[in-house]
Amino acid sequence: MSAGGFLLLVLVVALIAVAGWWLFLRRDHGNHAPAFGTSPTIPEAVSQGSMPTLKMPTARGWAPGEKPATAPGLKVDAFAMDLKHPRWAYVLPNGDVLVAESASQPGRIRSIRDIVAHRTMRRAGAMQESANRITLLRDTDGDGVPETREIFLEGLNQPFGMVLIGDTFYVGNTDGLVAFPYVAGETRIAGPGKKLIDLVPGGHWTRNLHASQDGTRIYIGVGSLSNIGDDGMAAEENRACIIEYDVPSGKSRIFASGLRNPVGMAWEPVTGALWTVVNERDGLGDETPPDYLTSVKDGGFYGWPYCYWGQTVDDRVPQDAALVARAITPDYALGGHTASLGLCWLPEGTLPGLPQGMVIGQHGSWNRSKLSGYKVILVPFADGKPSGKAIELLTGFLAPDEHYSHGRPVGVAIAADKSLLVVDDVGHAVWRVTGA
User: Fold this and answer.
1) Integer Cα distance of 218 and 206 in angstroms
2) Which of 188, 243, 278, 295 is 20 to 30 A from 310 in CA distance terms?
3) 3-state class (DSSP) for residue 26
4) C-alpha angle with apex 403: 400 to 406, nearest 5 degrees?
5) Alpha helix (H) ranges present in 189-309?
6) Residue 183 exposure: Cα atoms within 13 Å on the Cβ side
7) Domains along the sequence of the chain with CATH
8) Strand (E) positions, 289-339?
9) Which pLDDT value is given to residue 8?
10) Residues 77, 70: contact at Cβ < 8 Å?
11) Pairing of strands 357-362, 375-382
């Protein structure tokens, strides 16, 4: 590109950004109450058109001595700092904590909007060089501070989910499920892995893994390529779904579909059901539709891209009436665009004063006028179902004026000592939550 052409492109980007911000300021955002709970009030959809709301805080990180705020009766300390964009945690049977370090990569540039979005994502810390590794943290003396920190696996491709079954360690790379031989107690895997199934990279790139309780199946969360099937549904084949991989046979199938971006998964112990958190579509308003927590039925269809929260049709999408009629209403709304990613089951009594339920790491919004998420919450459960209002466990990741963020919570896990571990990618940290 010539110097003149480049300057013209910069000018066009600047003009469009100014125009988009002007439209954003004039838009009626409605100041709707958060769409939360089992029976949320979801505002009527208002299409944001070709220039959707784009608002993210600048990534600042944590200064020495700074840390998130906790609910009464809890305290939080740094379990590990100075990681490279950590995203997910997995606790091995011996108590070792594995942390996947990876990041979003630039996608295709098809419009000025894509250029602006990429710049915004980089400023917010959501898009950067990917470490493509898993780090092992070992707390030998049980004081809450790991004495051992080693690179467990490297040379991966945007790793995210991790599962150990027997003597095989599985990794969810963005382009496939990979298996490695594992020896108990080792701090590094040096041998080559074996790819078991291919997954299509791009779009929503995380590939979380969750094993069945008998270890015979692995569930893989695969997000959509686009917002609402923008490239046609053929491009979304084997996406926006949870895939079940049968370990003994090596065969795989779609377990549940119509899930735009299912990430965290957890077993609910009373019913034995699989639960997941899902990021819903963008471009319809601050609270429309809400992200959600739901049980996952074998063969179930959850609406994407044709409809949301049951049979509420998205008229931007060419329709399939039969699929809309099948769409299952989720169990619990988590607010619009909260980017609820992390999920783990918290048994009653694990943290003082708190009931049993699902802990959720809410990474935080970008497609709304007032930011949402940027916290860790607990949804109480009773008799196998959500029961009552969500409880805020960790806050303080976002500045009060919304201009910057110290961190953004992602993965959550229960450590061997029953503390709650929270992975913070922008803060490059893993936080440890215990009783005060």
Assistant:
1) 15
2) 243
3) helix
4) 75
5) none
6) 6
7) 11-24+53-435 (2.120.10.30)
8) 290-296, 307-308, 312-313, 332-336
9) 44
10) no
11) antiparallel
